[in-house]
Fold this sequence. Notes:
The complex is a heterodimer. By secondary structure, chain A is an alpha/beta fold.
Amino acid sequence: MPTAIECRDLRKTYDDKVEAVRGLNLEIQAGECFGLLGPNGAGKTTTIEILEGLLAPTSGMVSILGHRWDENEREMREWLGISLQETRLSEKLSVRETIDLFASFYREPRSTDEVLEELQLTEKADSWVGKLSGGQRQRLAVATALVCNPKILFLDEPTTGLDPQSRRQLWDIIRVFQRNGGTVLLTTHYMDEAERLCDRLAIIDHGQVIAQGSPPDLITRLGGHHVVEFLVDGNSGGAQDVWRTLPSVESVREDDGLIALNVKQPHLTIPALLEAIERQGGKLQHLTTRQASLEDVFVRLTGRHLRED
Amino acid sequence: MSVAQQTPVRTQPATPPPTQRRNGRWAGYSHLLMARMLELKREPEVVFWVFIFPLLLALGLGIAFRNKPEGAVSVAIVQGAESAQTLLQKSPQANQFKVQVLDAEAAHQGFRLGKFDVAIEPGPNGTFTYRYDPARPESVLARAEVNDALQSAAGRTDPVPTKPVSSSEPGSRYIDFLIPGLLGMNLMNSGMWGIGFALVDMRQRKLLKRFVGTPMRRGDFLLALASSRLILMIIEVGLLLAFGALFFHMRVMGSIAGIALIAGMGSLTFGGVGLLTASRAQKIESVSGLINLVMMPMWIFSGVFFSYERFPAIIHPLIKALPLTALNDALRASILEGTPILHQWPRLLVMIVWGGVSFVLALKWFRWT
């Protein structure tokens, strides 16, 4: 499969001080939906804007479908659909006028009606942008990207701040684009979004890729598909060693008094856990088990939660 | 709910159907221009400030400073000086005076408020005292006129016979001076705000960055912005001149084409200055301050409301080097005197230099993101 987006040793330093991106490598295949996942300030937006050719890197190589920004910009723009993190489109233009305007910049755009229908904006075609809901605005932003019939779609935090239903609508739109052969690069700080949409992910922190792979792959690498979380009454300081020796436990972490065990086989761990607590004379306050998520991967890798700033 | 169930009819990129939409070279330009005009039309504030406000200003100032009809010198006569009233009525200029007799306090009060131009007070031994304000031209004038009238009514004969002919033809009145000035000021305002403010607003909204993410030609974008200014300019100039002609019987001496050319150059000049002002600002608050800073000296010096001849002659060359002075002078010469455009080349050159240098610097510094 050909490479859609590639970058090597990408660096971006602002004002000779702030290192937003520090040696980042990515290789995204055509037809893939690839996610950049990371907390705010991790360098996701800087990275995606460099790949979009909107920001010049301090150093490093970027290649889009085998072309370089400094050689072939105008032609490359014809292939890319872009939705920035936050663009406020003109409020006094209608939805149709806005899509028509963006379509007019491309040599061979799609028909506006088709795009309106695909993004479920037909009913709103003649409404002013100022009158749209957050979800409709975001769909319009994606519509202005899709109207050019792009080969690659760049979406910077497409669903931030949207209600669950609007998010799901956007996910469907992205899947349809991908099913038709498009390549997607999106950034998100929503774990569930990354898990559901992306074929592969790069977890970014402090301007570097700290882990890369498919969501199930990353979770497996965490060392256990299950998480057992519990809370014990009374001091259990130093008890971490005890939890770690329980059967089937891969790793332990403590988070606000809540202890989380990454576990391969919960049915082996839990009876042993209860026994150990009783032996210590502690009292169990809380116990849950759940599937491990990317959030666990992230916390494991960075020691921080994804939504913390 | 899901789009997937609606079976989208996407075209395959590899095989475009015969109905494939194709855009020509100027599609982007024409859509940008249309979008800009639509936005302006849908913004009531723009319509007011660009079109209505200058008309109101012209109307208000035109009425306030209209040439006063006969009998416009208003005179207060303080009780005890009534003989002055009799004399004034006997004088040949009697119909020029609007006389009121009242007590000293009321007369002073009225004089202070500008209701009277001069007050005649009784002096000792049948003499009169004129109370006037040397700082008010009409007061100085009133004192001279009243004195003349009183003296001639009392029997003074002038050694040299003279005859006044009044001239308040259209073309030499304040409103005639004012309208070209307002036109120039309006072209400056709408150029600076229409280009400078609009650009920073789009930059702040990240719309410029979004546009740059498409194959849009950046030159087309600027061209569309300039074109929208020229279209508005035609409406602005037409409205204000038609208004002056209808309400104040103003006569336009120069050719319409010449005036349009000067106004168009003025628009583009201030469009260029506006572009430069907006080349780096990230926030509309900061560009608003900048725009006012740039325009302020021109409001004062460039002869919008009053002639810059009032400033010391030593700074006249500086004043004439301002783009708004050049525009106002050119408009006045063309509208009021019908001066051919070729004779105005130094003024046009001033505008071209300001506009051109601003444009080149703006392109060098301009930030799209």
